[in-house]
Design goal:
Elements: H1 3-28, H2 42-49, E1 57-60, H3 65-70, H4 75-82, E2 106-109, H5 115-130, E3 136-141, H6 148-160, E4 164-170, E5 173-174, E6 177-178, E7 198-203, H7 207-224, E8 228-233, H8 251-259, H9 262-272, H10 278-301
Parallel strand pairs: 1-2, 1-3, 3-4, 4-8, 7-8
Antiparallel strand pairs: 5-6
Length: 316
């Protein structure tokens, strides 16, 4: 990553964090519906999405705002969607959990655990049959890696030689259950050879490491047309949904991962490399805060969908 890319990555991660914290606060104030945040996982979203091109498509899960914003989504429209307003990406009908944005190449957001895995495989099959350029990036969690659809999807993608980048954001939590209660293997990417495909694991809180691994994976897929399994090892810092007191979380484990905050890690690196001083950081924080304030104001000013929109966009 060039110095400009590193600065841009930091600002994107800060915007994602601020957006999710604002959405959680709006829900707490009764101004928005339920939301699931990915606080602590920002480096995974930014590092991978920065390795994609405009021809590529994305399918993601219920912790999707990071992927959308990293892809270039307008925070005003994502905030409006979360608040159920008509100026949102889906006209206020999706909330935070089902956003899609065709113009950004974001095919869908699935709340069915592992649901996006089978759909991404189908999208990749379609693209291959139609001879379309680009690859399909599919984001899912370690919980989805315990679903049968994970095994079926990767096996079919391998057999049919489909251009899919499967990105397992291993955040250690499957709703309220720690991943160590559901799997004995330490690495999810270690399953890749079973399907005859390539795979790797990377520190999901180091955005530069994620980006390097994603670039290598994407290059491999473009060259071979075959799928790749990338595991980004990170941590879900907030609860399964908002609000969640996280009473089931080991305080020491949570404290450990707070020290490995992906935003702080990149800030420290940029500071040590002479690329970010206190004044530049303050300006960046101010820009992010203003964008989120503008997004909330835009969303609050946006009207709710009219009653006659109730039955539109139901069938295609």
């Amino acid at each position: 990553m060039t110095p400009d890319h590193r600065i841009d990555a930091l600002q994107q991660m800060m915007l994602i964090r601020a957006h999710e914290e604002a959405a959680a606060a709006l829900q707490g104030a009764g101004k928005a519906g339920g939301t699931c945040t990915a606080v602590g996982q920002e480096a995974s979203a930014v590092g991978v999405v920065m390795a994609l091109t405009a021809d590529d498509q994305i399918l993601t899960n219920h912790r999707s705002i990071g992927h959308l914003l990293a892809r270039g989504a307008d925070p005003r429209r994502t905030m409006a969607e979360i608040m159920g307003r008509q100026d949102g990406y889906c006209g206020g009908k999706s909330g935070s959990l089902h956003i899609s944005a065709r113009e950004l190449g974001v095919v869908l957001t699935s709340t069915i655990v592992g649901g996006e895995l089978g759909l991404a495989t189908g999208v990749a099959l379609s693209r291959k049959m139609l001879g379309q350029p680009g690859i399909v990036a599919c984001f899912f969690g370690d919980g989805a890696a315990c679903e049968g659809r994970f095994h079926e999807s990767l096996n079919l993608a391998a057999v049919w030689e489909l251009p899919v980048l499967y990105v397992c954001e291993n955040n250690h939590w499957q709703a309220f259950v720690h991943r160590r209660e559901t799997m004995l293997v330490e690495s999810i990417s270690a399953r890749a050879p079973v399907y005859g495909i390539e795979g790797s694991s990377v520190d999901g809180n180091e955005v530069e490491a994620v980006h390097e691994a994603a670039r290598a994976a994407v290059a491999y897929i473009r060259e071979t047309g075959r799928p790749y399994l990338l595991e980004t090892v990170t941590y879900r810092r907030r609860g399964h949904y908002e609000p969640d007191d996280q009473s089931y979380v080991d305080p020491q484990e949570l404290a450990h991962w707070r020290q490995r905050d992906p935003i702080l890690l990149l800030k420290h690196k940029l500071q040590s490399d002479g690329l970010l001083d206190a004044a530049a950081q303050q300006r960046m924080e101010l820009r992010v805060r203003r964008r989120i304030e503008e997004a909330v104001g835009f969303a609050e000013a946006s009207p709710y969908p009219s009653l006659d929109a109730l039955t539109t966009d139901v069938y295609a």
